[in-house]
Write a sequence for this structure.
């Protein structure tokens, strides 16, 4: 199955539709198996003690799954998250970007489910696991 | 049980420890039953179509639960979220702040669990429900 | 809004459609606000140490939310759970039934979300919290 | 790292400690990477329409993660589930056993997190994904 959006198209979509985070998140890989996105960690993502905030990781997972869905079905601007669960498992390493690897577990007509594993770049243990369900709006007739 | 932090102390804590979001989130009520926090919705929270982003709601829930825990046990800067689940149920109303109402369901020695219901101010239906588990570090001896 | 199924109808539905659990779960209250169901705790629900198993609590929550949805929309035999999250917070008291109190947080055309708080009968603290999303099939034309 | 429990030991543990489900769940593989367990599907697991019930899948995931933890740390009878999230994604195939493949994402001193992918035997798509957190009691001194 050919992808509907390339890496370059995904990043252009981020620039255009999500200007608030476009400078912070970049898609690096997108193929039939997975989408990999990077969070370029900066001051805005940090919490006391130098750790990366939970909401910053949630935002990274959210955008990675959204883009993985769009890469399959094309730009459906109104797909919305209906459910998310996150396990925060390890403290991210200070001074390293986060790498999110997303797989779609289901891509149905109405619901899609994606899962993301987040790691600190170059470090083995999983920092956070997140799965989200997206509701896909019906196509206009 | 007397609270360890008042509303004013909770907001002062936000100003000091979470400067990135202190101007956006304010605690309005904190008593033995619940903590209520407001997200002052601005451009940074919006998504295409004028809706409020999921990560903005996640961040609001996260800080509300964290502050509800601290209001009981005092400033334990290193309590960390280990798990979160969110149900996004309704589109928030455009142009209205979000009001998060948090209750602690469990406050154990090691783990605390809080739940947040998020509504658009002045609107009845629940926009999002979120529960989170926090791991509380052992007290220094 | 009048309910589509009374307590007696809900229990008759359980007897007919869920014979495996009908003798273990009984609906006690069903009104516009909430549905309350009881798990009659028996040997089959216990784990080593005399505690009630997580799966038994999951099954109780599942049926309570399902019946709360049917009480509103009538018998839609094919509604299916798409997502569930559970927080297990306290050990249930030995020798006491479990009481599940369910509220519907959303009842949409396509998705419904319910939440259940489970307590040991006569005991205050919440044993488990569970939310589930059900997908509702389209009506036959 | 050598495992503390072999496949045979895991099944013997099931027979001894979980007699209610021992005849229904069998461990088939257990190594450093993963534990695979089978649900021998029978009448007790079915729902109207011939599908396998959500609680039956939850129970399978629960025992697979529990045994994967014990395979690493030895018999710690009092480890308890504190949190679970499940995505139910496809209807299981009628007349086929379920195969649960569990990986531990974290094995800490206090908390362990495992994830399970459930498939119908011989069928490719994932039926359900489940992650659970277990709280590990401190060792007696």
């Amino acid at each position: 199955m050919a992808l509907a959006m390339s890496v370059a198209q995904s990043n252009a979509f981020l620039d255009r539709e999500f200007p608030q985070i476009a400078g912070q998140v970049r898609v690096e890989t997108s193929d039939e198996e997975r989408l990999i996105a990077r969070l370029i960690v900066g001051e805005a993502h940090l919490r006391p003690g130098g750790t990366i905030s939970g909401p910053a990781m949630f935002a990274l997972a959210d955008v990675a799954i959204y883009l993985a869905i769009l890469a399959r079905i094309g730009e459906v601007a109104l797909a919305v998250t209906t459910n998310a669960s996150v396990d925060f498992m390890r403290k991210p390493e200070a001074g390293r970007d986060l790498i999110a690897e997303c797989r779609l577990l289901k891509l149905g007509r109405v619901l899609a489910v994606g899962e993301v594993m987040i790691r600190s770049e170059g470090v083995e243990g999983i920092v956070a696991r997140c799965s989200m369900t997206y509701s896909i709006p019906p196509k206009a007739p």
